[in-house]
């Protein structure tokens, strides 16, 4: 063996180093506390100790109407002045009204000014100047804290949306507006608040039942292992029982259709055609027609004949597929360590996901408060330029542009780093996809190498190498990192394009015309098909890499043409394997799920006292069912890789050897018997 796709290996290593550097830069500039804790327009955290905001833990928005939704408020910031306050407003008020009455109602002014900028206490300043300088909000509305932010206190009265039992409010700029104008700014808050209490109860259920959930998953692991071991003896029986069961069910359907067809004979109106009665929303009308049952009977007869003919002509290939399934079970029995390799893949993918998520959060929180000059004069050359509020009053801007203010504009930055944040996020997503696909490719190549060493052993299990899994893993890392990275790169590019298409479809939803929707739908469909095809090619290419040690392109080409020369066998084996493994997943998840249902609902008398008292019994139940399915999927993915590897080895064995003494077959005795003397006879030169 020699190193393959060295250039791609070098590029892959450089990209990983660059990815680490991107994470470090994001860690230096980002601050995830901006996601958890609110920050005011000065970049200070609300409630931060040893600051003026220590006792002000809630964020107040001067003009919440500028905020699109709570998601924007929490994650992206809202384009309005934000202030830390100790409590949210509990009444309607406008700055105009408060200023007009501050002399004889000082309490109203004292209450309102706590929502103004710190230190502002000049009610004699004109309303226009106050709103221009954003010293105070134009209005306050009754609010309640949610995720440490002040949101309108919505309620529904007789089906009408209200705030503090009012349907209208003054916006402080001379207009009376409806509270529905606030709907978009706080859409879904009540639902999320209700979900918080449900979330607490779900957390309590997990805290009480976590060890029982682990026991259920352990049982799923044991059942999965037993199923794989028993497939050696039951694969053929399970498949033929299912096939004959399908034939029997379809046969019963044919008889039932004929019975209905004959039963309707002579009944008035039953001889009408579908064309006569036209389209009906009540489909039961069609069941009163003889023509309907005749059509059903003809369709079922066609399906029955097709299945029987396929069994007759493909019987030998089905037997080969079942024999390979049994051989796969036998191979796993000799190399049991392969069953636990998915844990390695899971750990690698978990590391990739964690690093991607942390980097994405730090990149998203890299923004800093940006201040820009707001001037009354349209000809002011400093308008919309960035400024520093700490030193703004010492500059010449206020002299050249009277009334100009250095006000908060948005969260972001104008450095080279901040300008390319979106590009960095795309790079983060792309490298994440590349690394995840590489981890999967490494697992597939490692397992393929281990199972190939089993197939090509002359005497099984005596000639199987010692520690075949670890040897295969070492070969994959030492020689074929570049090839695995190359295959993962191609798949990652397609997946990134699919992500971008989904993003565009989501962003353009509601604004696109019929042609645009059709075009996006076609593109998404095409790239979905391309991704499935590439996964199939990559999987078989990794098997050929594990067997022969060639580069990715050569291995992919050899695997593709080898499969095309055995296309019928591929189709039969694929469907038989998919069916049996899907049946196994359903049996494992369903069996453990039923057991968990009876346990958590205290219907097993022996364990009735042990079962925990839960708020929602479906919480641990669904966790056990989904977890059991994933556990079974992890074990069965090893089995599927084993069968695919043995199949490619089997096809190579048939093409390279002829069963003679000089070129003996490496296949098992059971496959010898199924192929028969004709296929095993030496090939003529």
From TrEMBL:
Membrane topology designation: Multi-pass membrane protein
GO cellular component assignments: plasma membrane
Listed transmembrane segments: 7-28, 210-230, 237-255, 293-314, 334-358, 431-456, 477-501, 579-600, 621-641
One Pfam family this sequence matches: Choline_transpo
Record flagged with keyword Signal: no
InterPro entries linked: Choline_transptr-like (IPR007603)
Major subcellular location class: membrane
Keyword field contains ATP-binding: no
GO molecular function: antiporter activity
Alphabetized UniProt keyword annotations: Antiport, Cell membrane, Glycoprotein, Membrane, Transmembrane, Transmembrane helix, Transport
Localization (cell): Cell membrane
Record's catalysed reaction(s): choline(out) + n H(+)(in) = choline(in) + n H(+)(out)
Superkingdom per UniProt: Eukaryota
Family: Belongs to the CTL (choline transporter-like) family.
Role of this protein: Choline/H+ antiporter.
Protein name: Choline transporter-like protein
Naturally occurring in which organism (per UniProt): Calypte anna (Anna's hummingbird)
